[in-house]
């Protein structure tokens, strides 16, 4: 049987009626729905079929599986494979995890432990360490991907030109106690730093602060009051004790308001940042995160620079939202970028603390509407830098970020210098899985409207296909969505819809596979495929069945950015 439908252009009206499926024992031909678009040159086909085991006998399927298993172009990491084989589709974690790499997690063994524990993206922070040190981390992550089949992406985070502390004389940290007197100085010391002394990178610091100002370190993790100015030195009394970390951000407040005039005059990308960006381009990192973005023009300028310097690679630019200027120009910045990071620590130093939660939710929702991955970062499990278990409040904070459907959560000091990086990662993983399962069990579908974002008619078709496929997947209880994509765009559109089932994203390009590993719900595979969807599906089914990742009878919806269609079928 067949029928003709017009697929609505409105995302909210794109729900298709139930499709009648033949029984698995039926010899009837597959049911097909043809959905023509008004200006399309050919109709889109949506076929629903319960495929028989094989018309050619088991020997061909076995031969296909054997050839695929020996095909070097097929890549899937062992952890994903084992998780699917043992626990099934619904057990997979949809929220991704970014881990900052530091002294406690930089060895090959430590990196593999993080990857096997669920790390999707390794972040290198250019505020710390030499470029040679970071190059070593990049090489070890690449080797891990090559040898173990992982798709761990590399994100390079620039330092930015905001006011920050120095290196603490090489010490990993320092503890500021209540009422202690510390000196913040812009002078250069030839000898080791005197005790209770901190370097500041901004030459005008001593001129700009005034006695009585409040100095916040790292978004308020430690607070000081300015009590005296002596030439290049500023004497401060600790009013809120805490841990001082190298190169922590500094802000100062006067009469209850942030003093931001000088920061506003500083360039977003410093001369050091440009050298670091050149380093990142040469090393072929997957993402470059830009600190203290003030406007969309900064992002556009950087992207044009990257395009000119790296014609053979596609590096995504992540805008860090961590200042008042970022919030004022939020939509323009997100539209210009390839993703965003909610850097709550520094953001909380520039806006009242009680406004941070609503700002986070606004950023997360806007990124999803515009189809840009968003990372919630800063102080998620801060206590686990020193303790093996998180506070209940931290667990609630992580749960809220997962409930908001952020693409990724980020560990900073917890993984870079904390004593329990693997345990912190395990907490993010377990909390994410539990909240996601609760969301699905309660059928808490968001009423969020996804506005059209395509710039062409073809883009609009892709959007409608993905919205329809996601709604069909939810209504039919589909086990998995398959997407075959060369650029990754179709996979990201599916991720934007946040369907109940996992999304298997097949791409032939390793760099695309790594970038997709940041996005919600995507399980990226590297697979050589053709424009023939039937051939691709047969090849994929053989591969995944041979590895125990899917079973006969599983219900799958497949889409592709090469052939604009939706196919619904049972695994043979």
Brief account:
This protein has 572 residues and is an alpha/beta fold.
Layout of helices and strands, plus pairs?
Blueprint lengths: L1 E3 L26 E5 L8 E7 L7 H12 L8 H10 L8 E5 L7 H10 L3 E5 L5 H18 L4 E5 L16 E3 L4 E5 L11 E3 L5 H4 L5 E4 L4 E9 L2 E8 L1 E3 L5 E5 L2 E2 L2 H5 L5 H13 L3 E4 L5 H14 L6 E6 L2 H5 L1 H7 L2 E5 H4 L8 H14 L4 E4 L14 H12 L4 E4 L1 H4 L4 H21 L15 H20 L3 E5 L4 H9 L5 E5 L2 H7 L5 E5 L6 H14 L8 E6 L5 E5 L2
Parallel strand pairs: 1-2, 3-25, 4-5, 4-20, 5-6, 6-16, 8-9, 16-17, 17-18, 18-19, 19-20, 21-22, 21-24, 22-23
Antiparallel strand pairs: 2-3, 7-13, 8-12, 10-11, 10-14, 11-12, 14-15, 24-25
How is this structure best described in words?
- The protein has 572 residues and is of the alpha/beta class.
- It contains 19 helices and 25 strands.
- The chain has an 8-stranded mixed sheet, with helices on both faces.
Give descriptors for this structure.
35% helix; alpha/beta; eight-stranded mixed sheet; 572 residues
**Helical content (DSSP H or I, runs of 4+):** 25-40%
Please, what is the oligomeric state?
single chain
Strand elements, count: 25
The major pleated sheet works out as: 8 strands, mixed
Mean pLDDT equals: 84
Q: Characterize the overall form.
A: elongated
């Amino acid at each position: 049987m067949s029928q003709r439908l017009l697929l609505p252009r409105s995302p909210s009206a794109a729900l298709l009626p139930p499709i009648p499926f033949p029984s698995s024992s039926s010899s009837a031909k597959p049911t097909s729905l043809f959905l023509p678009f008004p200006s399309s040159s050919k109709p889109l086909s949506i076929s629903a079929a319960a495929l028989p085991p094989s018309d050619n006998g088991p020997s061909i399927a076995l031969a296909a599986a054997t050839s695929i298993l020996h095909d070097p172009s097929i890549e899937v990491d062992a952890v994903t494979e084992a998780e699917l084989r043992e626990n099934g589709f619904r057990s997979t974690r949809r929220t991704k995890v970014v881990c900052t790499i530091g002294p406690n997690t930089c060895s090959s063994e430590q990196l593999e432990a993080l990857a096997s524990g669920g790390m999707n993206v390794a972040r290198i922070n250019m505020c710390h360490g030499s470029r040679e040190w970071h190059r070593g981390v990049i090489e070890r992550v690449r080797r891990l991907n090559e040898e173990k089949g992982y798709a761990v992406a590399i994100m390079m985070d620039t330092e930015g030109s905001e006011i920050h502390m120095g290196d603490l004389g090489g010490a990993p940290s320092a503890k500021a106690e209540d009422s202690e007197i510390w000196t913040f100085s812009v002078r250069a010391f030839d000898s080791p730093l005197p005790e209770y002394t901190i370097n500041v990178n901004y030459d005008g610091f001593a001129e700009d602060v005034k006695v009585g100002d409040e100095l916040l370190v790292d978004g308020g993790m430690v607070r000081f009051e300015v009590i005296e100015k002596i030439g290049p030195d500023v004497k401060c009394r600790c009013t809120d004790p805490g841990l001082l970390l190298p190169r922590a951000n500094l802000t100062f407040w006067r009469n209850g308001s942030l003093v931001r005039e000088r920061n506003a005059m500083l360039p977003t990308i410093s001369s050091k940042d440009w050298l670091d960006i050149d380093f990142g381009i040469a090393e072929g990192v997957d993402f470059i995160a830009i600190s203290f973005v003030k406007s969309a023009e900064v992002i556009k300028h950087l992207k044009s620079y990257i395009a000119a310097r790296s014609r053979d690679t596609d590096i995504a630019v992540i805008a860090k939202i961590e200042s008042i200027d970022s919030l004022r120009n939020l939509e323009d910045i997100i539209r210009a970028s390839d993703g965003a990071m909610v850097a709550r620590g520094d953001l909380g130093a520039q806006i009242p603390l009680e406004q941070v939660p609503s700002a986070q939710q606004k950023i997360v929702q806007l990124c999803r509407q515009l189809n840009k991955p968003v990372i919630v970062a800063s102080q998620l499990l801060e206590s686990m830098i020193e303790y093996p278990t998180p506070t209940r409040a931290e667990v609630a904070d992580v749960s809220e970020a997962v409930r908001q459907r952020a693409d990724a959560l980020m560990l900073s000091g917890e993984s870079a210098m904390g004593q329990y990086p693997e345990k912190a990662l395990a907490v993010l993983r377990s909390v994410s899985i539990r909240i996601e399962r609760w969301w699905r069990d309660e059928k808490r579908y968001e009423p969020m409207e996804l506005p059209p974002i395509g710039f062409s008619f073809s883009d609009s078709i892709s959007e409608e296909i993905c919205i329809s496929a996601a709604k069909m997947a939810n209504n039919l209880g589909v086990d998995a969505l398959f997407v075959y994509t060369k650029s990754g765009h179709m996979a990201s559109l599916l991720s934007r819809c946040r369907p109940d089932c996992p999304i298997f994203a097949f791409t032939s390009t390793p760099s695309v596979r790594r970038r997709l590993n940041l996005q919600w719900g995507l399980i990226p595979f590297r697979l050589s495929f053709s424009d023939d969807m039937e051939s691709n599906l047969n090849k994929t089914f053989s591969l995944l069945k041979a590895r125990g990742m899917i079973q006969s009878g599983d219900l799958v919806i497949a889409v592709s950015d090469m052939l604009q269609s939706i196919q619904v079928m049972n695994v043979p």
